[in-house]
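Hi everyone, sorry if this is the wrong subforum. Our group has a chain we'd like a structural model of before ordering constructs, and none of us has done structure prediction before. Sequence below.
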Amino acid sequence: MDPTPVNPPPQNPELGTALQALKNRDFRQAYHRLNELAQKGQTEAMGYLGLLYLRGLGIAYDPSQAFHWTERAAREGRGPDLLALSNLVYLGLGTPRDPPRAKALLLDAARTGNPAALRTLGLVYLGLGPDWHDAAVACVEAAATLRDVFAIHALGIMRLELGQIESALPILSWAGTQGLFPSLLRLKNLQNSLGVSVVRNLAILPPQYPNRPHTRTILPFDWRTRSAGSVIERDERIGLRIGSNLLHPVECDYLIALAVPHLRPAETREPKTGRIIQNPVRTSSAMNFPPNLEDLVLVRLEERIATFAGQGLERAEALAVLRYRPGEEYRPHFDAFDSDTQRKDPECIRLGQRTETALTYLNDTFAGGATDFPALSQTIESHTGQSVVFRNLDASGNRDPLALHAGLPVESGEKWLATLWFRERAGARSFD
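Answer:
Right subforum, don't worry. Here is the predicted structure as C-alpha cells:
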C-alpha cells in the first residue's frame, strides 16, 4: 500500500491505454490489457499486473500470481518493482516470509533513487529508534526532493517537532494541495492553535526543502523492534499499561493516510444473532487492513504494538483504524465476546476469545474523547503515539468486568485511534 504513488507517464502507448483503464476504474479491461503486455515480456505491465492480483482488481485475489509477476518485473532492477517485491517478501504473500531478503530488496530499491523506496526506507529507519533519526531524515529529504507527497509531509512534521513553524507550514500546505489528508488535518489544527491569519500568511510562502537526494544515507540495518519511551502500570488486575511515544508522529500520520480511503461507518457484532451491524453504541468511522492492503512499514508498526502488548502478531486481528468526529463516541463496552457469540459464531469458535486489546492514539489535537474505565475509576487522555494495553479475560478465561471501557464523546476536532485485538488462536489475519 502506498499513500502517495509516483507514476510518470508510460512511454509505451499500449501500456498507457491499460493504465488509463486502471485510472477509470475499469479494472477488468485493465487486467486484460496488462496481462497481454506482461505475457509479451513488458516489464512495467508485469509490475502493474502483480498489483491487480494483489488487490483483487479485475481478477480474483491471488498472492501467488502477485508474487510471480512482481518478481519477474523486479529482475529488471526498477525501483518500484523492487519495492513492491520487498513488501511481498516481508509480509510472506505468495512466498515464504523472508525479512533478510526483504531488507536487501528495499536497500536496492532505494539505491535506484525511487522516491517511494527512499521514503519507505526513511520510515523503516525512523522505526529503529533515535539512533537512526538522522538517517531517517536524510532519506525523507531525498524522497521529498523527488516530490514524494508523503515524504514532503513527513519533512514538515519533523520541522514542526523542531519548532520550525515558518519552515514547516509551506511544506504542509503544499502536501495539502495534493490532497494528502494528514496535511489538511495538521493545517486545521494549526489554525486552531495559531490563528487562521498566521497560518494563511505562512502557508503561502514557497516551500523550502533540499535540492538534491542524499543517496549516501542508504545504510545497512538490522530489523529490530523499537520500545516505548516510558511505561506506566495503571492497574495490574487487567494488566492495564500505558507506553509513551511507541509510534512517531510521522508513523501515526502514515497510518491515517493509508486508512482514509477505506473508512466506513463503524459496526458491532449483535449478541443474539452474531450479525455485524451499525449500532448507536458506536458512532464513528472505521476500517481494517486486510493483508493485501498492508506494506512492510505498516506491518513493522503492528509488530511494535504487538511486542509492547507482549503478544505475537500471528494471534492479532487485522489492525483497525477509527476516526471520531465531534459528538461521536463508543459507549461502555467489552472487547471480549459474550457467551452466545462464543458458542455460535464460526469465527469465534475457530479463533477463540479476544484476550488482549492494544489501543494506540494517532493524534491528540481534539477535546474530549478520553478512554474511560468506569469499573476502575480511571480515565486515560490521548497523546500522539501512546499505546494502552489491557487484558479482556479474568484468570478463569471469562470476560473480566473490570475491562469495561468507553471512548468518551469527542467535543471538538477529530480523534484518530488504531486498535489491535488479540485472539486465543492464530488465523485472524488470513485474507477474507
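For your construct planning: Residues 141-217 form one domain. The chain has a mean pLDDT of 91.
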